[in-house]
């Protein structure tokens, strides 16, 4: 198993992070451990621009601790990178040499462009989006990019971040109006040198990194958002400015108690939000989209999939990965259910005004409908719902994750309504009916493959009048089990679709 595990260490300006990834025997990737240590390296620089000796000693201790954690997990390799704090230090070469000597780790010093590129890779592999802006406000630098067709078009690394700006423009975390104006003037001057930043006016601004995650959690708490995840969280652009003003005026002790804000970020969140707000206005973006992935994820994908690190289909990879983490049903059976559900959907969807992406929900739900059995077979549908809701299904919006969970776990209308109660504010009026119809459709596909053998590799599906004709095209045996299952489901299917399903003999 050793060669299946990799440790990623990110030596950032605000914090040092470790993530350990594992490839399971079924081919899935997952995070099995992680650690974070606050370092504030950008605040530990002397008047000559050198990273101070105390910071280097602290960094050595952290890296050795992380190396021991990797050893405990028998990782096959460790990839460690350093970003702005070390990059901008006058003694960066000496720092890297000392770190490698004392820890035995080979440390890559990323340029601003490399940092942006790895962050972009991690983001693109976790979102289904073609065009947009990308901003990562770190502790000592801020990377901003424009992408189209999932390819980087332009990128710039600004030499300031939330920690370095806090050191320069705050007093113990407090920032008055004059300091705010001075900070905004500095950011505006940097932005003025990059006129291309308005070339994508009207596109969403994807925010990644610590400041972005903190911003998302703040809005989450402020709006009492019912969905637990902040990844792929759409936020109105005005929220950055509103929270900036509210938090700027709060004393640090009260800011530490502000809903959604962690104590260790209370002194740097204001400058971080100031940069975020300034960049949002300058690029004339449509809104924010919070992304929970970034640099470390990009480093992982570039290490594990060196030949083709950019995923061609984010949703398909994510769904397949989640299914491989819970391999309770035979893969051939799952693929057959998926194919059958897709075939029935294509026949019936033309007559029903489903949303454009409904077919993808059905395919994802068909692939994942049995994952709950990894917890307990009895009432596995409920466990399937829980696992989907609480997993990162990249490529789906929060609403789509809820819909997919509802379809995959569908059993009865009553249970579906109970499951949807906490998420009513995120759903559209027609969504419950969509889930009932598509959930019943999936149940029919499951019934048609009840033997869990490839009995219906070729099936003709045709809606005619009040009947859904299901005709096997080749000899598949008597299909006794499947016919009984279809008959027991017929009444519920007819209520949902107005069609009576009939499975004919070969």
Structure characterization notes:
The mean pLDDT is 94. This protein starts with a strand and ends with a strand. With 506 residues, the protein is of the alpha/beta class. It contains 19 helices and 14 strands. It has three domains: 109 residues, Nucleotidyltransferase, domain 5; 184 residues, Nucleotidyltransferase, domain 5 (2-Layer Sandwich); 190 residues, Orthogonal Bundle (Hypothetical protein af1432), CATH 1.10.3210.10. Helix 4 crosses helix 11.
Features:
506 residues, alpha/beta, Nucleotidyltransferase, domain 5, Hypothetical protein af1432, 3 domains, 6-stranded mixed β-sheet, 5-stranded mixed β-sheet
Gyration radius from CA atoms, angstroms: 26 Å
Tell me the number of strands: 14
- The parts where pLDDT drops under 50 for at least 5 residues are none
The appropriate CATH architecture of the largest domain is Orthogonal Bundle
N-to-C terminal Cα separation, in Å? 47 Å
Strand order of the largest sheet: 8-7-6-9-11-10
Shape: elongated
Mean pLDDT equals: 94
Give the CATH level 1 class of the largest domain: Mainly Alpha
Main sheet specs: 6 strands, mixed
Task: Determine the strand fraction and express it as a percent band.
Answer: 15-25%
């Amino acid at each position: 198993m050793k060669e299946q595990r990799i440790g990623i260490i990110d030596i950032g300006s605000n914090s040092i992070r470790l993530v350990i990834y594992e490839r399971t025997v079924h081919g899935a990737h997952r995070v099995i451990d992680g650690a974070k240590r606050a370092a504030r390296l950008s605040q530990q620089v002397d008047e000559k621009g050198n990273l101070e000796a105390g910071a280097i000693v602290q960094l050595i201790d952290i890296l050795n601790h992380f190396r021991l954690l990797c050893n405990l997990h028998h990782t096959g390799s460790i990839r460690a990178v350093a970003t702005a704090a070390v990059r901008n230090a006058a003694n960066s070469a000496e720092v890297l040499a000392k770190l490698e000597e004392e820890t035995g780790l080979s440390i890559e010093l990323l340029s601003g462009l490399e940092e942006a590129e790895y962050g972009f890779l991690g983001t693109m592999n976790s979102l289904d989006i073609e065009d947009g802006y990308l901003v990562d406000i770190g502790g000592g630098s801020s990377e901003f990019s424009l992408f189209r067709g999932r390819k980087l078009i332009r990128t710039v690394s600004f030499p300031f971040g939330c920690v370095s700006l806090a050191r320069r423009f705050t007093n113990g975390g407090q920032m008055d109006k004059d300091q705010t104006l001075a900070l905004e003037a500095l950011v505006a001057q940097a932005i003025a040198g990059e006129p291309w930043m308005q070339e994508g006016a009207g596109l969403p601004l994807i925010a990644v990194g610590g400041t972005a995650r903190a911003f998302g959690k703040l809005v989450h708490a402020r709006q009492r958002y019912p969905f637990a995840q902040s990844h792929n969280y759409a936020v109105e652009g005005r929220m950055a400015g509103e929270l900036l003003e509210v938090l700027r005026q709060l004393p640090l002790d009260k800011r530490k108690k502000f809903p959604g804000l962690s104590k260790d970020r209370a002194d740097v969140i204001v400058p971080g939000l100031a940069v975020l707000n300034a960049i949002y206005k300058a690029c004339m973006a449509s809104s924010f989209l919070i992304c929970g992935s970034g640099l470390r994820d990009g480093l992982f994908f570039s290490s594990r999939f060196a030949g083709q690190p950019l995923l061609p289909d984010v949703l398909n990879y994510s769904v397949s990965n989640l299914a491989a983490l819970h391999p309770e049903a035979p893969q051939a059976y799952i693929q057959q259910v998926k194919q059958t559900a897709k075939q029935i959907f294509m026949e019936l969807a033309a007559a029903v005004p489903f949303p454009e992406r409904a077919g993808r929900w059905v395919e994802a739900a068909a692939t994942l409908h049995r994952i709950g059995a990894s917890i307990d077979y009895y009432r596995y549908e409920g466990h399937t719902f829980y696992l989907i809701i609480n997993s990162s299904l990249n490529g789906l919006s929060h609403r789509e994750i809820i819909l997919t969970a509802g379809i995959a776990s569908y059993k009865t209308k009553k249970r579906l309504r109970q499951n949807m109660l906490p998420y009513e504010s995120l759903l559209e009026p027609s969504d419950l009916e969509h889930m009932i119809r598509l959930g019943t459709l999936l149940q029919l596909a499951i019934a048609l493959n009840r033997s869990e053998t490839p009995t219906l590799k070729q099936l003709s599906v045709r809606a005619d009048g009040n009947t859904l004709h299901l005709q096997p095209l080749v000899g598949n045996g008597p299909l006794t089990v499947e016919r009984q299952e279809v008959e027991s489901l017929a009444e519920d299917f007819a209520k949902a679709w107005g069609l009576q399903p009939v499975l004919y003999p070969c």
